Amino acid sequence: MSNERAAGGAAPGAASTGSAITRDEVAHLARLSRLALGEDELGHFAAQLDEIISAVARVQQVAAQDIPPTSHALPITNVFRPDEVRPSLAPEQALAEAPAAEEQRFRVPRILGEEA
Amino acid sequence: MTTTPSLVPYEEALARYEPVLGVETHIELGTASKMFCGCATTFGAPPNTQVCPVCLGLPGSLPVTNRAAIEGIIKIGLALNCRIVEWCRFARKNYFYPDMPKNYQISQYDEPLCVDGYLEVEVDGETYRVEIERVHMEEDTGKSLHVGGATGRIHGADHSLVDYNRAGIPLVEIVTKPITATGDRAPLVARAYATELRELVRALGVSDVRMEEGSMRCDINVSLMPRGAAEWGTRTETKNVNSLRSVERAVRHEIERQAGVLDAGGRIVQETRHFHEDTGTTTSGRSKEEAQDYRYFPEPDLVPMAPSREWVEELRATLPELPAARRRRVQAEWGLSDLELRDVVNAGALDLIEDTVKAGAAPGPARKWWMNELSRRATEQGVELSALPITPEQVARIQALIDEGSLNDKLARQVFEGVLAGEGGPDEVVAARGLKVVSDEGELAAIVDQVIADNAAAADKVRAGKVAAAGALVGAVMKATRGQADAARARELILERLGAS
């Protein structure tokens, strides 16, 4: 089972340790995060991110082979609740903070255009 | 790149190319509450009436896993002959799309709960084993209404309206391994798989698996390779195919379309395609060439699941008889040929006949009434057999009246007519319409004597030993009693009186 745990959920975008974060990687992350970064900012953040990742990566120096990566701080499993219906919000409450609503639904801007 | 080459006729495409299929099926579980919160899951509720801070992704809310949903997926995994893993986690699938208010979907990534199973399906008497790669747990998304476009589609829409009632409903995803060597039966194998999967899940009672309501949805992967090639072609994924018939048509169309592209020297683009129910064709959706980057990571708000072996075995012990085993049993018990069994299954009559048998009727008559009289009426009315306003118990009661001799088949048909017309149960219809086999021996004897007197020529033939001529006399008795005589008894009396018995 340890293999399954070790497989983890490493995101493809995350850099492996040791190699410096590139401007391209920052640009990719920025696009995924819907952040508009300027050319100068790409280099700026690349250096910063590199420092952060390097700092965090030091944990690997103490992690031995037989210690699986930890995703949860609590050593517990199987927290379940019974299948029981509980009251929902009233639609007015649910929609109260929505920037826009129409026909008792959340109104959102055009979806395609950036993804198509 | 992709101009639009013409379709290659199916047989021709299959002569040159070999299809490889894959099916991803999403099934909404029929739990009372959602996957990670206590909101109700009722289908068709007014928009945004079944939402709460958890399924709306409001700050500070935390998900808690619904035990019944986990039991449901484990049952599905077991029924699909999967291994249930001993330890796994949920994962966040991050994407920007308003159908999930959290901006991520809680799903499973590289640690699915159930792995390595199979489902056997039959096409034209041949069995195909469809290997199951994985079965994992996730949550359904909200429903969008696209406004401002010409066709209600997302393309060309001005804005969208989102209802989050569906967001957070437990969703099970079942992924096959590549399905190979199906040849020209590929579309039928895909359909048979979807059909069998639906039957299986329905038998488990964990979902209503209504494709028309979206509680079961199929995505179909198809690729073609030249016959004899070792390497598979590039696949396309056709999304949200929402009926069994569409599963078959979507595969067929993709084979014809891709063959056209390849014949013209083009290449297949790995992409999502949309199936159009009206034309049976697919069109390109967003391209997957720029790989989606979902940045999966272990869900920090939910602790890992480690289903104990005891729990898994407890669940295994609750599995009902599964459809394939049930079909084999019923076929043996009822003495059906393969073809007869297939007709019963295709007519959706298996449950109905079995319930009729349980209510006391013999299998033969039970099948006869459902497959003939009632199937015909269902077809006439354009409804499913099970939607007819008559119960298996009522059918069994009518047959019981036949068995005890108070109805014959002809009268029984009138009783069916009455029950279907809402005149009440079988006994009420019999009473109200005065349908009863004439069983008063004296009355019947008098009618027989009269008929013999009226049909001297036929009577003489019977006296002379031509027993077959008695048929005309029996017919005359039935006519005289407006079908209410016991034909067998009438025949006995006739032969007795004419000295031919």
What composes the largest sheet of chain A? 2 strands, antiparallel
Task: Please write the CATH class name of the domain at 15-67 in chain A.
Answer: Mainly Alpha
Mean pLDDT of chain B: 91
| Helical coverage of chain B, percent range | 25-40%
Nearest-angstrom radius of gyration of chain A?
Answer: 22 Å
Give the total of beta strands of chain B.
Answer: 15
- Helix percent band of chain A: 25-40%
Summarize model confidence as the mean pLDDT of chain A. 80
Q: Whole-Å distance between the termini of chain B?
A: 86 Å
- Shape call of chain A: flat
- Beta-strand residue percentage of chain A: 5-15%
Largest interface between protein chains, with number of residues from each side: A-B, 48 and 64 residues
Placed side by side, the strands forming the largest sheet of chain B appear as 3-6-7-10-1-11-12-13-14
How far apart the termini of chain A lie comes to: 40 Å
Shape of chain B: elongated
Residue share in β-strands of chain B: 15-25%
What CATH calls the topology of the domain at 15-67 in chain A is Histone, subunit A
Oligomer: heterodimer
- What is the overall number of helices of chain A? 4
Low-confidence stretches of chain B: none
How would you characterize the overall build of this protein?
The complex is a heterodimer of chains A (116) and B (501). Chain A has a domain at 15-67: Orthogonal Bundle (Histone, subunit A). In chain A, 34% of the residues lie in helices and 8% in strands. Chain A has four helices and three strands; from the N terminus they run H-H-H-E-H-E-E. Chain A has helices at residues 2-7, 23-32, 39-57, 91-95, and strands at 80-81, 101-102, 105-109. Chain A has a two-stranded antiparallel ribbon with strand order 2-3. Chain A is flat and about 50 Å long. In chain A, 9% of the residues are buried. With 501 residues, chain B is an alpha+beta fold. Chain B has three domains: 10-311, no CATH class; 323-433, no CATH class; 441-497, Arc Repressor Mutant, subunit A, CATH 1.10.10. Helices cover 39% and strands 19% of the residues of chain B. Chain B has helices at residues 10-16, 67-79, 186-204, 244-263, 309-317, 323-334, 338-346, 350-358, 363-381, 392-403, 409-420, 426-433, 441-454, 456-463, 470-480, 487-497, and strands spanning 17-28, 65-66, 83-84, 91-94, 104-107, 114-123, 126-139, 143-147, 159-163, 170-176, 216-226, 236-241, 271-276, 281-287, 297-298. Chain B is elongated and about 95 Å long. Classes of the chains: A mainly alpha (116), B alpha+beta (501). At the A-B interface, helix 1, strand 1, helix 4 and strand 3 of A face strand 2, helix 2, strand 8, strand 9 and strand 15 of B.
